[in-house]
Write a structure and sequence with these properties.
It is a single chain. The chain is of the alpha+beta class and 168 residues long. It is 40% helix and 11% strand. α4 runs parallel beside α6. The chain is globular.
Length: 168
Amino acid sequence: MQLNQSNAERLIAELGMKDMPIMEIAPHSCAISPDWFTKYKELCHEFMLSLTDSVETLAFMNLPQDDFMGLIMGRSVPENMSFRLRVPLTFGGKLEIDNMFMCRTFPHAYNMDRFIMAQSDAQTIWLPNPPNKVYHPAQTLGGGDGGNGTEDRLTETIASQIASDRDF
């Protein structure tokens, strides 16, 4: 289905991401290197280490402390988190940190896939393009409806300490 910008914005809003910026691309088939997955895994590790500039957003995601630390230290990806390429390799995207972002797998990555697949036969495709490395919907940035506030403050404090230790 070929979408124009207003239809694409409406569709992504219906999928629960009304604050998600989108970009239009003309996809072109690209040959993908046979070792792309090895390079992708290395890039994911570099991307995790680069997230120290996103600790405030990460703190609002209410990750358990061990998951938060594992992510920031580049050891592990928390459950229900995905790394995504803004422009997929098959559409001409590059394996670069600037082409990556992180979001929850469900519902966000799942809904982004639905959004992209709905355009599979289009000449131009609209892709999710959040402004930051971590996509967390604006309507949830104010925190949740309760929870363990002590652990949330502890996570935020630890994140600030890591950032200051790394001179960020």
